[in-house]
Design goal:
6% of the residues lie in helices and 40% in strands. With 394 residues, it is mostly beta strands. Bound molecules: calcium ion (CA).
Length: 394
């Protein structure tokens, strides 16, 4: 993985001055290489936007694969209130192609995304939210359309193809990333040893070079949202189980947030021996919210303040598949109102009925923008066209 990150960094430096393609409606590409970003000129993006990029292989080469590598991703996301700006990566050239992955929030270490065939779509959507929530830098990525020997065995996570060259994961080498080797001397004997050409890692470390800790001491999240994080890395020791004697924590403290909403999508810990403890603040001296073990999904948890702490501990025997969770942030708006905001557009049905009856114009539609807050309900003026309300403050 270290070699992949280094190569990715070099790629970023090498193409820093190449012009990219910013958001501009729907654009089709059939180049072998390019840069796509949501906007040019630096700074944060503005709303609303609605863009599609569809990448196809030159001459429809059937053996080509599309690979994207992110230079950065930083978008607003708040799934708790169903408000988010997102980038949807499609496995094909069309808005109805299957989803490969759906991004929102902030992420610094996104692995490359590869198409299964010779085309890919990028769908970028931002919305005119009420309450003017923060935006971000947006995104910038490089794409390539090329083919490699055995496509670098990407389906086994042994590497990926970019610009016709294989970039191998730790522990793999060769033109097709199919030759195992003991990378980085397996991280020295305290982390692993070389056996039959492969690294055998000691508990607490994983990967082809045994350099990655299975359970980082403390991970601090400052992004507005993280869609999925887990107690361990998938495929760890080939079993997808957490390590014994783990002792680690996650501090969720999103920049500028007033509260945090935590939600679990998977949970399986050895009952009464392995635990996840959750605290309503930055440390274990904060209010204790609960201890979770076994295989029942914990409830959705909302902090009372701007931080949550998760503390994960396991004993020395029996492991399970662990947990996967995600979080979003709540913000105090400029009026000092806190809590969940809900907003959207409403077809004003009663006006249709009354006016339709009065003037005999059946099918006339009116639109009104609405926003519900904790102690406050607001409506915009009524318009006959939804687009007329896009920029209207309420
Ligand atoms: Ca255990």
């Amino acid at each position: 993985m270290k070699s992949i990150l280094l190569i990715a960094t070099l790629l970023v430096v090498a193409v820093a001055f190449v012009n990219g393609q910013a958001c501009s409606g729907t654009v089709y590409f059939n180049n072998t290489y390019g840069i796509i970003r949501d906007h040019n000129g630096g700074g944060n993006y503005t709303r609303p936007s609605n863009c599609n990029w569809f990448i196809n292989s030159p001459d429809d080469q059937p053996n080509n694969q599309i690979t994207i590598v992110f230079n950065y991703l930083d978008t607003y996301g708040n799934a708790a209130t169903q408000q988010f700006d997102f980038l949807d990566v499609k496995d094909g050239r069309g808005i109805n192609a299957p989803d490969l992955v759906w991004f929102y929030g902030f992420d610094q270490n996104i692995p490359p995304v590869l198409s299964s065939g010779n085309s890919m779509g990028l769908i970028w959507r931002t919305w005119a939210f009420s309450g003017n929530p923060p935006t971000g830098r947006g995104f910038e990525l490089q794409y390539s359309s090329s083919s490699c020997p055995s496509q670098c065995n990407w389906k086994n996570n042994q590497g990926y193809c970019f610009n016709g060259q294989c970039y191998c994961s730790g522990g793999w080498t060769g033109p097709a990333c199919d030759v195992p080797y003991c990378a980085n001397n397996c991280g020295s004997s305290s982390r692993g040893i070389c056996q039959n050409g492969r690294c055998a890692c000691v508990p607490g470390f994983y990967g082809g070079d045994c350099l990655a800790p299975t359970c980082d001491k403390q991970t601090v999240f400052t992004a507005h949202s993280v869609k999925n994080f887990s107690d361990h890395h998938a495929g760890l020791n080939g079993k997808n189980e957490y390590e014994h004697a783990a002792n680690c924590s996650w501090l969720i403290k999103p920049t500028g947030a007033s509260r945090v909403v935590l939600e679990f999508s998977a949970f399986d810990l050895e009952q009464d021996w392995d635990f996840l403890d959750i605290y309503d603040g930055e440390s274990m001296t904060a209010t204790f919210l609960g201890r979770y073990s076994g295989n029942s999904l914990p409830p959705k948890i909302t902090s009372s303040g701007p931080a949550l702490l998760l503390h994960f501990t396991t004993d020395t025997g029996v492991a399970s598949t662990g947990f996967t969770a995600g979080y979003t942030s709540l913000f105090t708006d400029s009026d000092g109102n806190s809590g969940s905001n809900t907003s959207g557009y409403l077809v004003v049905a009663f006006l249709c009925t009354l006016l339709g009856t009065a003037i005999g114009a059946v099918g006339l539609h009116f639109y009104q923008k609405w926003q519900l807050k904790k102690d406050d309900v607001r409506y915009s003026t009524v318009a006959t066209n939804e687009e007329d309300l896009l920029g209207e403050d309420i």
